[in-house]
Amino acid sequence: KYFIRVHNNSTSVKNVSDLEKAYDNLGEGDGYRFLKQYLTVHNAELFFSEKAIFIEGVTERILLPAFMFKLDEENKATEDYTRLLSQNISIIELGNYTHIFDKFLSFLGIRYLIITDIDSVNNDGACPVVDGNSTSNDSIKYYLADKSFEELKKLSIDGKKLKYEDGSYTQSAEANLCIVYQTEENGYHARSFEDAFISQNIQFIFNNKDNFLSLKNRDKIEEDCTDFYDLARCCISKKSSFSADILFYSNEGYTNWQTPKYIKEGLLWLTQQ
Questions:
Q1: Phi, psi dihedrals of residue 137, rounded to the nearest 5°
Q2: pLDDT tens by residue, 140-157
Q3: Measured between alpha carbons, how far is 88 from 173 in angstroms, rounded to an integer?
C-alpha cells in the first residue's frame, strides 16, 4: 500500500500491484521489471520523497548540492521561497532511462525535475548545437516528441512544464514534471553541462586552469575563448574530476562561478509547492 497526502485533511491510498498492471496493459512489462530491480537495489527512498530530481550522472550529482545551496542563498530574502535543502528531495542517476519511471512517478504523485543534455547531432554524429539537426537524447524525444529540433532549442521553461493527460504529455500550469536542458545563454548554446559551465565561467576556469587536475591541453584555455564545445571536448580528461575541481576551488558561498541557466530555471520551478 502506498499512502500520499492529497490535501491537509485527506490521504490517497494506492495498491502497488495496480502499477504493475498499468505497465502490463501498455505492453511495457520489461519497464516494470527494470523499475522493480532498480528500486530494490538503489532507490526505494522515492516512496518517501516529497520531490525528485533525475540527472544524467556523477557530474551533476557532485555539483547539485552546491547549485541548490547557491540558489537558496540567492533567494533567502524572497517571500514565499521554500529552501531546496530543507525539502525531502531524492536525487536519482538514470541517464536516459527517466521515461521508464514516468508511470511510477505519476503513481507516486510527486513533483519531479529532469536535468539532461540536449545532445545535438547531425548526419556525422555528435556536434555543436549550432550545427545540429536533431537530438539523440531519449528523454527529450519521449517527453517532447511533438517538437522539432529548432523548437527544442527555443522552447521556454514554461514549454518544458508538463502534465500527463489523455495518454500524452502536454504543457500545463498544473505540471508535476519539468524537463530542462541547455539553452542559449549570452549568445552561446551549449550541448552538455561541461561546455555550458565553461561558457558562463571562462574566467573562473582560466584562473584555475593550472590547478584543475581534470584538465589537459591547458594552452587552449584563454580568457577570450569562444569555442566552448571544443574546450569541453579537448580539455576535460574526466568529467567527475572536473566537477570535483569546481567544488575544490569554489569559495565558501559558491559566488565565484555561475550556475548554468537551464539548471537554475529547473531548480526554481522545483521549489514551488
A1: -80, 120
A2: 999 999 999 999 999 999
A3: 23
Residue range 18-76, pLDDT digits in tens:
878 877 766 666 777 777 776 765 567 788 888 999 998 888 889 999 999 999 999 99
Burial class of residue 143 (count of CB atoms within 10 Å of its CB; 0-12, 13-18, 19+): buried
Helix (H, G, I), strand (E, B) or coil at 81: coil
Residue 186: what are its φ and ψ, rounded to 5°? 55, 40
Q: How far apart are CA 215 and CA 221, in angstroms?
A: 10
Q: How far apart are CA 125 and CA 29, in angstroms?
A: 32
Cell numbers found for residue 130: 549550432
- Concatenated DSSP letters for 203-236? HHHHHHTTT-TTB--GGG--TT---HHHHHHHHB
What residue type is assigned to position 229 of the chain? Answer: Y
Joined grid coordinates for residue 256? 565565484
Task: Indicate the pTM of the whole model.
Answer: 0.87
Annotate 15-77 with DSSP letters as a single string. -HHHHHHHHHHTT-HHHHHHHHHHIIIIIGGGGG-SEEEEESSHHHHHHHHHHHHHHHHHTTT
In contact, 53 and 91? CB cutoff 8 Å: yes
